[in-house]
Every structure is written in structure tokens, then in C-alpha cells.
Amino acid sequence: MNALEEVAESFSRLPGIGKKSASRIANSLLKADAGFLQRFALQIATLQERIHPCSVCGAYTETDICDICSNPARERNILCVVEQPQDVQTIESSREFHGLFHVLGGVIAPLEGIGPDQLSIGALLERVKTGGVTEVILATNPTVEGDTTALYIQRQLADLPVTVTRLASGLPVGGDLEYADKLTLARSFRGRTSF
Question: What is the DSSP string of the chain?
Fold first, then answer.
């Protein structure tokens, strides 16, 4: 295996990049400016040193406390619970949510040996108890594991003076009913709203 194939192989290990895309990226890098390649290599080499979880919410940041947690303009009484740090970026890109976040670091998955103790659920409960939180939005993925995790958290919060909500799920905008699976249709009917 030559150097070009090695680089393509490395890129193909990344999520969402197949062998053809990895090959195109590797060939593109071969033609790129040497200065760009050096900066790119340094950025990749130092990524794990520079980026770490926020000490408050668990989102990715270069500082001890992320920009969201340190922003006094955020609604501090609303807490959105997500599975992974990248979920924070996804929700932030919608520009619809103005509260704070809490990253669980995964979902309850007994078959993979992941229980509530391996997630930051204890820290979430502590934040709700001491942080003046009035609403917790459970934004876990609509999967069996995501639903199980959301149900577990909801039960843990049941005795606290906080409203627990769940993100709506169902048919995507622009989607056709004939292509929707049964679970998506069922969720759509349960989550229907008046207008």
C-alpha cells in the first residue's frame, strides 16, 4: 500500500466517508498547497489537546466553560439534554433554542454494557436541583436506546419541581406518507397538534 492509499484508507474510517470519497479527498490533498497541508496536519494533530468537554455541560470547547454556559443572555432555567457533544452544535444551528445544555455522553444500552452510571445523569440531577431549572427538554434520539434513556431521566426527575418535555418527532417536512415507516407514523399520530 502506497502513501496515497494509506491516507485514503484513513479517511475512509471516518463516519460518512466511503472509499471513493476518501480517495478523492486524498488526491485533492496531494494537489493542495504545502502550507495548507501543514496547517491541516497541525490542526488534526492538536485537536484532542485543544478541544475537551465543558466542565459544566459537557459540550466541546477550548476553554474550561463553553461559550453557551458562560453567556449571561441564555435562558438559565431551561435545560436541553442531548446524547453527544455534537448534538449541541446541531441544535444551536437551528437558532431556536436559547437555554442551556447538558450532554449525557451516550445512551443507556445494556447490551453494550452502558448503564445510567456511565452517563452524566447524576450531574444532570444535581444541576436541576441546584441551578434554578424549571424545564428539562429531553432531546435524545428517537431510538429504542434514546427513548429508554429519556424515560429513565423522566422518572429520576419526577419528584423534582421541574417540567419535563420531549422533542416532537414524526414526519419530516417535505416527506411523503407512503415512504414513512410504521414507527414514524405512530409517533406522528401521538404527537399531533392543533393549528
Answer: --HHHHHHHHHHTSTT--HHHHHHHHHHHHHS-HHHHHHHHHHHHHHHHH-EE-TTT--EESSSS-TTTT-TTSEEEEEEEESSHHHHHHHHHHT---EEEEE-SS--BGGGTB-GGGTTHHHHHHHHHHTT--EEEE---SSHHHHHHHHHHHHHHTTSS-EEEE---SPPTT--GGG--HHHHHHHHHT----
CB 116 within 8 Å of CB 153: no
In the block, which residue shows the cell 445512551?
Answer: 107
Q: Are 107 and 140 in contact (CB under 8 A)?
A: yes
Q: Residue 24: which pLDDT band, with cuts at 50, 70 and 90?
A: very high
List Cβ neighbours of 161 (8 Å cut-off, separation of 6 or more): 134
Single pTM value for the model: 0.83
Rounded CA separation 195/192 (Å): 10
Task: Identify the pLDDT of residue 143.
Answer: 86
Question: In this predicted structure, what is the pLDDT of residue 172?
Answer: 73
User: By the 8 A CB rule, do 13 and 27 touch?
Assistant: no
